[in-house]
Amino acid sequence: MEVQTTQSFYTFTTETPELLFDGIACFQADASLTPRYLNPSLMDFLGLSVLPGSLAAYMEKEDLPAFKAFLNRLKPGETAHARQRLTDRSGTPTWVCASCQQVSKPEDAPALILCQFADLRYLKRTQTESYADQVPCGVFKAMVDDRLTLLYANAFFYETYGYTRETAEAAGFSNCELIVPPEDFKRVHSEITGHITAGQYSFELENRGRTIGGATLWVLVRCQYNPSDNTLFGAVFDITDRKTAEEALRISEEENRIALRHSDKFIARYDLRTHTLFQTEEAAQLLGQKTVTENVPDSVIQGLDIADETTADYLRFYRDMLAGQPEGHTSVRMFAPDQNRYVWYIADYSLVYSDGGEPITAIITYSDSTELHEREIAYERWFTAYEQRRKDSIAYYEFNLSADVLETFEGQTKDSIPEDCQQTLEALTHYTSEHFVLPEDRKKYRRFFGRGRLLELHRQGTSELSLEHRRLRPSGDGFFWARADVQMIDDPFVGAVRFFALIQDIDSSKRRSLELRKLSQTDPLTGLYNRATLIKRLGRVLRRGTAAHHALIILDIDHFKSLNDTCGHQFGDRVLIEVAGALRDCLRSNDFSGRLGGDEFMIFMRGLSDTAIIRDRLNVLRERLCHLGLTEAPLTVSIGVALFPSHGRSFQELYDKADSALYQAKRQGRDTMVFYE
């Protein structure tokens, strides 16, 4: 094979159809010269109807080593030429001129080559032919003036832009401004003069051209400037096909890059022969590595902070590659410098083989799987916890909450619920609330298990919920307390929200809790609210506003100290208990009362502002106390009344006013009631 140092691109001509002038190929510089694109002329020359898997198969074997070495010497953007034999459709080797350019060199893949092939027999025409018109490219000579005035152009030059000499003359085609889009001409002219000013007399341009019909094409212009007469001699090649292929390749590469970025995955290439790892800059920065790392995996084990529990998995991942296992997967915990913490990564690889079937490269993809790993742990933890607790449960549900599908139902109530009421969470909740839940708690039970509400809470970050409620006893005699505990987690295996519900009998513990709560809120002797509880409950009512009217009443047993001293403390306690019972019997359900201390009681009547009604109700109470029959003389009380909001808006204000009214009642001789004025 011979290598030329001059560049020639060839354009199709109809004069000798048996010869190849414009074969264009885009292929990888790998062992097979894997084609990405072959234009129709080259496909026809090779006798192909579909894109072959190897372009090397259509070249003479003895030429291939030198041709591949020639390709490896190409620098990005450089165009060079070589003589090479191609086998045509008849099986005959044909010498061609291969004009090649390296258009891209990805870090993790072979270089991409764009090549134009032309039959060398065309170059051996006799000198009697007009050389310029027979050269299969546009040749021109122009003045370096404002419009690049044409001094000469061959037939191929005019044909490139859709003209003949005759149509060019008729159209006034006398300068290059006519064939360059207006928006590009200034830039092209500036590039030409820039090269000349810098002393670069041989140079190349790539720019858009404009045909006679207004269509756009791309051309490569190889120029030689002659300073003696300020002229530019050049050759023009139509590279529209090449530009189209480059654009398609660029879009394809960009699509792959975006797809990887959107999937949060990184890609690397591992050379099995040299044990070298090639990564993108972004991926290397993530792991605190270089873009090219040699002696992998040993150097990585020494240089990176890999968690001890996953070191063996990391080494096994690479040893499987080197052993020729086609694919592999691992999960590794490594220190991420940019996050300043340990992070879980999942990695997969696939091997790439040479033509001889030898594994030469592994393509590795990996991504941050910390969140997925944590979800798996959470899933296993909660599954184990619920497994232990559900054995004696009232009910245990497992739902795919995203799809609203019941997957597991266990517990005491399962056999009591019809199958058609177990299909969805809503159906199951409705049946359960109607048949097992106390009527007063059904509304909150249905709301708690509302699927839409649960999904929204999960979206907001809530994973655990509980609800205490009352359920009907199977025997029908009363109710018992139960608690529903709900756990919602992301299932890392199916990408759905998993819903676990465990309902347990908490009656004993709940009743103990309520009893303790009652004891903390009530007076131990009378069972009425104590002072602290009274103040808290009354404060909640008053804070709701002044739209309603209420009455705060302080009641004091007349001569209680004397009675206590005469009859003893036990008798005094009995009197206090009886007074408390009378208060409970005489008050409405929405009123409440309590013992402030000693023989002093407080009553709070809600929604009453008519003093006559208040007086009547209190007189009923006084009458009841008079007839208790505990003492020889009737038991009487003194009462002070304050009204909300006219006498005050806070507990302390109302208490002071009612206490003042009570004082006036005692001054008036006791056994009476006084409204604060």
Side by side, the strands of the main sheet go 1-4-5-6-2-3
* Estimated share of beta-strand residues: 25-35%
CATH-derived architecture of the largest domain: 2-Layer Sandwich
CATH topology of the largest domain: Alpha-Beta Plaits
InterPro entries: Biofilm_reg_signaling, GGDEF_dom, Nucleotide_cyclase, PAS, PAS-like_dom_sf, PAS_fold_3, Rev_trsase/Diguanyl_cyclase
Domain GGDEF: 548-677
Protein name: Sensor domain-containing diguanylate cyclase
What tags apply to this protein structure?
single chain, about 675 residues, alpha+beta, Beta-Lactamase, six-stranded antiparallel sheet, 27 strands, about 30% strand, elongated, disordered N terminus
Describe the structure.
Strand 7 and strand 8 form a beta hairpin. This protein starts with a strand and ends with a strand. Mean pLDDT is 85; it is low at 1-17 and 123-130. A six-stranded antiparallel β-sheet has the order 1-4-5-6-2-3, sandwiched between helices. The protein has a six-stranded antiparallel β-sheet with strand order 14-13-12-17-16-15, with helices on both faces. With 677 residues, the chain is α+β, with helices and mostly antiparallel strands. It folds into five domains: 3-124, 2-Layer Sandwich (Beta-Lactamase); 131-243, 2-Layer Sandwich (Beta-Lactamase), CATH 3.30.450; 263-368, 2-Layer Sandwich (Beta-Lactamase); 373-510, Beta-Lactamase, CATH 3.30.450.20; 523-675, Alpha-Beta Plaits. The protein is elongated and about 145 Å long.
